[in-house]
Design brief:
This protein is mainly α. It has one domain (4-122): Helix Hairpins. It is 54% helix and 0% strand. The chain has 6 helices and no strands. It has helices spanning 17-20, 29-42, 52-68, 71-86, 90-101, 118-122. Helix 2 (29-42) packs antiparallel against helix 3 (52-68). The N and C termini lie far apart (69 Å).
Length: 127
């Protein structure tokens, strides 16, 4: 099998081909084909002459379609994607995403600083 679509997995940022094609992870072959056609028409370099960003996006769309439209490549990609998710511990995930989790609109811990625990902050009410 030709494995040139993701030759250097460990040194490359992981591309989410499902997001590139704007489809769900359980997309059918028809969903993949239709989304590819729509995005290929929208981002074709001939419609945006001289734009390196558009050319790069179009190449990503083609790469994603090439992988997801082939059942063998899609299977390999899905296994690698799951491995990518599972290789981190819960602590690593929480550390990576604490900025999104610990916001005033999220858990609210950042608004209380580090001096109070969540329980103390929860019951701290000004009367």
């Amino acid at each position: 099998m030709d494995d040139d679509w993701n030759t250097d997995v460990d040194n490359q940022p992981h591309k989410d081909y499902y997001k590139v094609l704007e489809i769900d992870y359980d997309a059918t072959d028809e969903d993949i084909r239709l989304s590819f056609r729509k995005l290929a028409l929208k981002w074709h370099p001939d419609k945006h002459l001289g734009s390196d960003t558009v050319t790069s996006k179009f190449q990503d769309i083609n790469e994603a379609y090439r992988v997801l439209s082939d059942p063998d490549r899609r299977g390999d990609y899905d296994v690698r994607r799951v491995y990518e998710i599972k290789k981190y511990t819960l602590r690593e995930y929480l550390t990576r995403f604490k900025g999104m989790i610990l916001t005033p609109n999220g858990l609210g811990m950042s608004q209380y600083g580090n001096t109070k625990s969540m329980q103390e902050a929860k019951f701290d009410v000004d009367c």
